[in-house]
């Protein structure tokens, strides 16, 4: 039985992991310093451990803390880990930025959820409304081994499948590739585009379109547009009129050099900004 310590167990992400790990086959210990986080754990019947007792004995230490805190937190906990243990982070940013405390005698495993796809089909309403994942809707995950052996990767992946479960697929990628996915693809690019679309909804409502009608019209069109663009409908294409509108939009409000967000130095700057 692997001994696993979850740091930040009472935080926003930590509680999601705690939910799936508390009844797992792992020998779990939970660490938390904030009074609110400790209270959340107590409500789940979970006692906070003494870090000096559990960190040196842990086979795996999961650092479930925000990106901006990982440098400080890793400097506190990683030096206390036993040789051969595995440090797990839930985001590539700090690792990519070189802000994780470095030890050559431990493994570093990074994993992140893809969240349930908009094209997921779940058997019940509860699962359909699990937008974040980790409760009842299936989701894919990505995993990267920054340092360690193949056994370390398999140990990390098996653990990730439990705390992010239920899982549809697990994808093995590199730390650099994970940085291209997040923040570059899904936050810097996709979140910005979707934010602008949301602001567009507010604009048409201001111009007199009934809010409920505008929302229904937009969300329905987003679904079919995404289905066409992401090949969910074999052979489907946009109409000539829709393509003309698309080309007009590209010229009017999309910069020609938008792909620079995926250039190596640009990705590093994005990561630096969020860490």
Layout: helices, strands, pairs:
Layout (H helix, E strand, L loop, with lengths): L2 E5 L4 H10 L5 E5 L3 H9 L7 H4 L5 E4 L3 H11 L8 E4 L3 H4 L10 E7 L11 H4 L10 E9 L2 H14 L3 E6 L2 H32 L4 H19 L10 H14 L10 H11 L1
Helix pairs in contact: 8-9
Return the string of H and E elements: EHEHHEHEHEHEHEHHHH
Counting helices, strands and paired strands, the structural category is: alpha/beta
- What radius of gyration results from the CA coordinates? 21 Å
Please bin the fraction of helical residues: 40-55%
What would CATH call the class of the largest domain? Alpha Beta
- Mean pLDDT across every amino acid position: 96
Main β-sheet description = 7 strands, mixed
At the fourth CATH level, what is the homologous superfamily of the largest domain? NAD(P)-binding Rossmann-like Domain
User: How many strand elements?
Assistant: 7
The global form is: globular
Instruction: Point out poorly predicted stretches.
Output: none
